Amino acid sequence: VQLAESGGGLAQPGGSLRLSCAASGFTFGSYTMGWAREAPGKRIEWVSIIDSGGRDTFYSNAVKGRFTISRDNAKNTVYLQMNSLKLEDSAMYYCAKGNRKDLGYNEWDDWGQGTQVTVSS
């Protein structure tokens, strides 16, 4: 399993970024995928999760209404569109693979290397 995040960078408050996670080494369309983030001195936090078919999603309260998760199973890629960015969104963002098709209890054994998002004026 390989997960490669991209799209991070520097954004101003109120700005937007789109993260991508290119997956390989497994049947992408059969598994739930998720995005989590880790800021310095804080615990890792789940941001958003999407089921295998892209129909069911989860968002943390911190990002609900601002971030949108999506996936393209033909391209083996999951996305995180981040709008209305806030200073507190600054973190390393990781893509992860679940072990189920649905949003039930997943185990997350495969993670990418992460992409840094910095929100600053």
Question: Which key features would you list for this structure?
Answer:
121 residues; 11 strands; mainly beta; single chain; 4-stranded antiparallel β-sheet
Let me know the number of strands.
11
The structural class is mainly beta
Contiguous uncertain segments of 5+ residues? none
| Number of H- or I-type helical stretches | 0
Q: Approximately how much helix is present in the residues?
A: under 10%
In this structure, how is the largest beta sheet organized? 7 strands, mixed
What letter string, H or E per element, gives the SSE order? EEEEEEEEEEE
Give a written overview of the molecule.
This protein is mostly beta strands and 121 residues long. 0% of the residues lie in helices and 47% in strands. It is built from no helices and eleven strands. The chain has strands spanning 2-6, 9-11, 17-24, 33-38, 45-50, 57-59, 67-72, 77-82, 91-97, 110-111, 115-119. Strands 2, 4, 5, 6, 9, 10 and 11 form a seven-stranded mixed sheet that branches. The chain has a four-stranded antiparallel sheet with strand order 1-3-8-7, with no helix packed on it. A hairpin with a 6-residue loop joins β4 and β5 (45-50). The radius of gyration is 13 Å and the shape is globular. The model has no long low-confidence stretch (mean pLDDT 97).
